[in-house]
Specification:
The protein is α/β, with parallel strands linked by helices. The protein has 15 helices and 14 strands. Helix 9 links the parallel strand 6 and strand 7. The termini are far apart.
Length: 503
């Protein structure tokens, strides 16, 4: 064997290429075929020589789905878990099987020390570990824990709480969460995916637990109290923050007047996401928070009036992210009219300050949206990097964007790829000096009226938007226009439009 293979660092580098994702629990999951090939390769390496055995075994046991592979190392359980002729049996039952004895537990622990990532998706088989000391972590190198076991099995949770734990996902808010944040000081990623109704006690427990975390980088959880929000603002490590209301059974704490005059800026937070029923909650949070590094904002809520939508957009424009924010997505579920007669929403005017904007997706089903050629031109001139622009919702009856205004605005946006907007299909008076927009690929237009001259509209789109295959495919009003576009593309020579003769 070459002397270079006696150097541990070189061996690890080679093995990483064989099974390259094994040390990164955040990496995308491998396919079943890739995992099987990697496992076969590692088994071969582990049986090659003593030098390869230990590092190869570490790779083999790095990530597990459940504890069944560990239990399969026990002779009396192997035949039950892996029946003859089958690689694995997901239907085996351990109900009548006694817990591991001392010798079997030793064998279990010998491999458990190698595991870096594990997913516990049910409480099945955990009782077999009852002979192990419940206050001792038996996975000392564990970095990622996906815990979906039911609450009664939390007595076994301590077995998995390693001081090296970096990533944790749990389905409920209970005492187990407090134990995790108490014992795992190095925790960086915390996901509390509780979709049951959240009580006031649970919110308090969650908030207290979050305040114990001092190195968080990614957090997804139900609503917190204001003191926990203040604590998060002091974490320079925090990068991504997602909050949802968890079908709260009590009034939102964020709807109450907070005492946060001295809240710190969220210095390094790049992504913020809210899924909260009440619009007032999101508005209250954004009014009192500063995100100087924010790149992505998304908000999903229930009903919201035009006035509330204006407040939210205004609060967003004041969060000190004008030079960094690249993506805004706000979607409302709607359901009942909230606007007073005559009230309108001009969603673009509050967002001119975001000069780095790449994507803007707005869905306001309960608002009366107003945009015209002038407002569109100002918005486009503010967003030279925009790639996706989607503004969806009922438009005010006086709102109108002409084709002249359309091309005047978007000639300032050379990267525009996807567009969803209102258009006046009747007024097709074009600027003779207008240049085609080659970047646009997806065009979804809402017509303000019946399309009287479908062929002329199709000619304009074909000539000026050469990469658009069709307009609003799901809308019947554009069917005739799309038929003409298809015809033009089939008959025209490459690079030559239908010209005036097509009219």
């Amino acid at each position: 064997m070459h002397r270079a293979l006696l150097v541990p660092e070189i061996i690890l580098e080679i093995f990483c290429h064989v099974h390259h994702q094994v040390f990164n629990p955040l990496a995308p999951s491998e396919t079943a075929d890739e995992m099987q090939l990697a496992q076969k390769s590692m088994v071969a390496l582990a049986s090659t020589c003593k030098t390869f055995h230990e590092p190869a075994m570490d790779f083999l046991w790095t990530a597990l789905e459940g504890i069944e592979p560990l239990l399969g190392c026990v002779a009396r359980l192997h035949a039950v878990i892996y029946p003859i002729g089958k690689k694995h049996s997901s239907a085996w039952s351990s109900q009548d099987i006694t817990p591991l004895n001392e010798k079997e537990a030793s064998l279990f622990l010998r491999h458990a020390v190698r595991i870096r990532s594990i997913a516990i998706n049910s409480n099945d088989h955990l009782h077999l570990l009852s002979s192990l000391p419940v206050e001792t972590c038996v996975f000392p190198r564990l970095q990622s824990l996906h815990w979906q076991a039911k609450t009664p099995t939390n007595e076994y949770l301590n077995l998995f709480l390693s001081p090296t734990l970096r990533r944790c996902s749990i389905p409920v808010i209970d005492s187990g969460l407090t134990r995790i944040t108490n014992r795992c000081a190095a925790l960086k990623d915390l996901f509390v995916m509780s979709f049951s109704r959240t009580t006031g006690y649970e919110r308090s427990l969650l908030s207290d637990s979050v305040r114990l975390c001092t190195q968080l980088e990614n957090l997804c959880c139900p609503e917190l109290d204001w003191e926990a929000w203040r604590h998060l603002s002091t974490l320079s490590t925090l990068h991504n923050l997602a909050v949802y209301d968890g079908f709260s059974a009590t009034n939102s704490t964020w709807s109450l007047k907070p005492d946060l005059e001295n809240i710190s800026p969220f210095l390094n937070v790049k992504s913020v996401s809210f899924v909260i029923k009440g619009a007032g909650c999101i508005i209250a949070i954004m009014k009192r928070s500063v995100f100087p590094s924010l790149e992505k904002f998304s908000g999903f809520s229930g009903v919201m009036s035009s006035a509330e939508a204006e407040q939210l957009l205004c609060a967003l424009s004041q969060c000190k992210a004008c030079q960094t924010l690249e993506c805004i997505a706000i979607q409302l579920s709607g359901g009942r009219p909230l606007d007073l007669p005559g009230s309108t929403l001009t969603p673009t005017t509050q967002l001119h300050c975001f000069t780095q904007l790449r994507a803007l997706k707005l869905h306001f089903p309960d608002s009366s949206i107003y945009i015209d050629d002038h407002l569109l031109f100002k918005a486009a001139s503010s967003w030279p990097h925009i790639r996706i622009l989607q503004i969806n919702g009922p438009y005010h009856n006086s709102a109108a964007i002409t084709f002249r205004g359309f091309f005047a605005a978007f000639r300032q946006c050379p990267h525009l790829h996807t567009l969803q907007l209102l258009i006046d299909p009747v007024n097709i008076d074009m600027d003779p000096n207008a240049t085609p927009l080659h970047s646009l690929r997806v065009l979804d237009l809402t017509a303000t009226s019946h399309i009287a001259d479908a062929k002329a509209v199709a000619c304009t789109i074909f000539s000026m938007l050469p990469c658009v295959e069709a307009v609003s495919k799901s809308m019947q009003v554009w069917h005739e226009v799309n038929t003409h576009i298809t015809s033009f593309k089939a008959s025209a020579s490459p690079g030559i439009g239908p010209g005036v003769e097509a009219l």
